[in-house]
Amino acid sequence: MTTAGTEEVPTTEEPTTEEPRTAEDGILELAEEPVDEETAGEPSDEAPELEASDTDASEEEDAIPEAELRSALEALLFAAAEPLPLQRLSRLFQGQGRGAVKKALAALQEELAANERGIRLVEVSSGYQFRSAPEHAPWLRRFFAEKPPRLSRALLETISIIAYRQPVTRGEIESIRGVNCDAILTALQNRDLILATGRRDTPGRPVEYGTTAEFLELFTMRDLSELPPLPDAESLANLLKEDAVQEESEASADGEELATNMDAGSGEGESLPDGGTDGGPGGQQAAAGEGE
Questions:
Q1: What is the pLDDT of residues 165-186, one digit of tens each?
Q2: Of the residues 177, 195, 226, which one is the last residue of a structural domain?
Q3: pTM above 0.85, yes or no
Q4: Is residue 114 within 8 Å of residue 148, measured between CB atoms?
Q5: CA–CA gap between residue 120 and residue 74 (Å, rounded)
Q6: How many CA atoms lie within 13 A of 142 on its CB side?
Q7: Structural domain of residue 103, as residue ranges?
């Protein structure tokens, strides 16, 4: 502002310099703000409630009634070409849980056995599988013309020694049986009933043998703890004697059948009065003699 006769004097304002804010300043301000003691420490339930609702919805989608679960398991086991382990079945029914699947399998086992059905649900070392009821074996043998492969007495003796004494070496098996077992061990390995489990830490490092999962499946066992107890010496001798008698009777029956077939084959030609057979060498010789 100027007045007459006076000289204008400029007014200068001192500049205000504000220092830039840093992250530390913001943290300090937050720390100095008053905290409401009533709401402090109370967790927010909004996010957990949302997550819980999503989980419940997914479980409700996967969960199925027990009867439907049992029916689905029956269909899967029927369609499977090999045993199905519990772990794999549990993965298929994630909403049920391992315990519920195992309970449904046990209920299916009881249902099949109680209703005298022709199939049984058995648990072997590699899982669960449908198999025919043992009491219907004669009908199955009559239906299938081809006889199933049987284990000979030598194979049974050898695999029994391996099952009860594994791991066992070839020398130990031969000392028990008293004969060479090379061919028998090879035959059992070809059938995937035994395998080499390692080498013994003794001079020569002989190979040790043990049974396989196929062995357990063949004899319907889950593990080796289900092997029957070993009989005493007298019972074992009687069992071996019975097996020997059975093998002899089967061999004699096969021999009689073979002899019958040979006799029937030799009598096919029709005898002629001169002792020759129709169309045979004797008939030709007789015809030649008459021509002379």
A1: 999 999 999 999 999 999 999 9
A2: 226
A3: no
A4: no
A5: 11
A6: 4
A7: 63-137
Instruction: Quickly list H helices, 166-273.
Output: 170-177, 182-190, 213-218, 233-266
User: Which residues partner with 127 through β-bridges?
Assistant: 124
Residue 172, token pair as written in the block? 């130990």
* CATH code of residue 207: 1.10.10.10
Query: What digits encode the pLDDT tens for the residues 9-58?
Result: 555 555 555 555 555 555 445 445 555 545 444 544 444 443 444 444 44
* Dihedrals phi, psi of 123, to nearest 5 degrees: -110, 120
User: How many degrees, rounded to 5, is the angle at CA 86 between CA 81 and CA 92?
Assistant: 80
The answer to the question of residue 163 being in a domain is yes
Q: Is residue 231 part of a domain?
A: no
Structural domain total, the chain? 2
* DSSP three-state, residue 169: strand
Cα angle: 233, vertex 238, 242; to 5 degrees: 150
